[in-house]
């Protein structure tokens, strides 16, 4: 008959097994702690590197923005200190004053308005004003079309002026703007630039261009 192990042997075996498990468990904890410490230390270094790089990039970006704003300010300052020439060596203000010297009656003082819209719409200001003077007589006394309907170019169209076929505008500035805009869109932009070229479409009189050229020279010498 096979001899069974004694109770003492069994207890010793249990103690040995428990001791081994305890030792293994402690070793695992020590290993995990060591690995965690190493990972944490390594992770901190990585995070510090990332944060440092991000902060550096942020500062560089802010610095670029500051430099861009500084450059824009310098450009604006330079433009402000340098007079802008718009026509024949004149600033917009000087051009307006020159045009105004040829205006009387209702249009007196509107030279700057003619200058503004002529430059804005890309129309020769002398040409625009010359047509106005021819159509309105504002070299001396403006016509009733100007005084009653703010029509400075003999323009026909909507907003009938006193029941006629001529257009009416709410203000003189709007009338001036409409007249110069019409010259730009329907004449200049279609290649009709000189008084002679414009004459065939703008007026029926064959002497219209000669009269416009007369006023151009008069304004130029004013």
Walkthrough of the structure:
The structure is a single chain. This protein is mainly α and 222 residues long. The protein folds into 2 domains: 9-82; 92-220, Lysozyme. The chain has 8 helices and no strands. The protein has helices at residues 7-81, 92-100, 111-121, 125-136, 144-149, 172-186, 195-202, 208-220. The longest helix has 75 residues, at 7-81. The protein is elongated. 24% of the residues are buried.
How do you describe this structure in short?
The protein is mostly helical and 222 residues long.
Notable features of this structure?
2 domains, Lysozyme
Shape: elongated
The CATH topology of the largest domain turns out to be Lysozyme
**Major sheet:** none
State the total count of DSSP E strands: 0
* CATH architectural label of the largest domain: Orthogonal Bundle
Rg from Cα: 45 Å
> Helix-strand pattern, N to C?
HHHHHHHH
Summed over residues and divided by their number, the pLDDT gives a mean of: 82
- Given this structure, which CATH class of the largest domain is correct? Mainly Alpha
Question: How many structural domains are formed by the residues?
Answer: 2
Instruction: Decide which structural class fits the backbone.
Output: mainly alpha
Unreliable spans: none
Strand content: under 5%
Number of helices: 8
Helix-residue proportion: 55-70%
User: Span between N and C termini?
Assistant: 144 Å
């Amino acid at each position: 008959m096979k001899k069974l192990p004694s109770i003492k042997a069994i207890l010793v075996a249990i103690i040995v097994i428990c001791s081994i498990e305890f030792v293994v468990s402690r070793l695992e904890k020590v290993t995990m702690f060591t690995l965690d410490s190493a990972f944490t230390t390594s992770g901190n270094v990585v995070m510090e590197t990332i944060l440092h790089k991000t902060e550096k990039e942020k500062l560089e970006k802010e610095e670029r923005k500051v430099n861009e704003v500084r450059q824009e300010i310098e450009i604006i300052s330079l433009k402000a200190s340098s007079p802008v020439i718009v026509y024949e060596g004149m600033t917009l203000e000087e051009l307006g004053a020159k045009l105004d010297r040829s205006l009387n009656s209702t249009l007196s003082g509107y030279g700057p308005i003619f200058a503004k819209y002529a430059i804005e719409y890309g129309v020769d200001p002398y040409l625009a004003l010359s047509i106005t003077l021819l159509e309105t007589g504002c070299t001396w006394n403006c016509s009733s079309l100007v005084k009653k309907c703010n029509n400075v170019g003999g323009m026909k169209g909507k907003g009938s002026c006193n029941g006629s076929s001529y257009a009416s505008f709410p203000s003189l500035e709007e009338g001036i703007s409409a007249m110069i805009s019409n010259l730009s869109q329907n004449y200049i932009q279609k290649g009709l630039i000189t008084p002679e070229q414009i004459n065939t479409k703008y007026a029926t009189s064959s002497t219209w261009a000669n009269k416009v050229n007369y006023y151009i020279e008069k304004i130029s010498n004013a």
